[in-house]
Amino acid sequence: MAGSKLANDLLQTPNTHYSITLIGEESQVGYNRIMLSSLLANDISDAEMPLVNTDKMRVGGVHIISGDPVICMDLETKELCFGSGQSVTYDQLVFATGSRGQDATDRGASAQNVMGFSYLARC
User: Which of 4, 68, 75, 120 could cross-link to 30 by cystine, CB 3.0-4.6 Å?
Assistant: First the structure.
């Protein structure tokens, strides 16, 4: 959420030009993770989940890499490499890693009706 919001805000900053790449491990970026419980409870729809408009960000020049986690980085050459084999270089880098909930199965829960939903793809 923080990375998506920062990229969107930088894009909206007047009289500045940045080359922005937003990288997300999940296949979907830019959604409001706080609303996952409401989505799971059917209190809101998928259409109400976006935190930012990623289509508009792409049109504005933001390069979005999603569903491809960073697996290594070289601080000397300022290069990131991804699980797919792709790599990118950067001038400035912001880490907005968010949080990762502990899966109930990690604690020994084995019931078929127990699941975690800290990611949109799990809802």
Answer: 4
Q: In what order do the strands lie in the sheet with 70-74?
A: 70-74, 79-82, 87-89
91 exposure class (CB count in 10 Å sphere: 0-12, 13-18, 19+): exposed
Contact 116, 101 (CB under 8 A): yes
N-term to C-term CA, the chain: 17
By the 8 A CB rule, do 117 and 36 touch?
Answer: yes
Predicted TM-score of the model (pTM): 0.78
pLDDT for the residue 8: 94
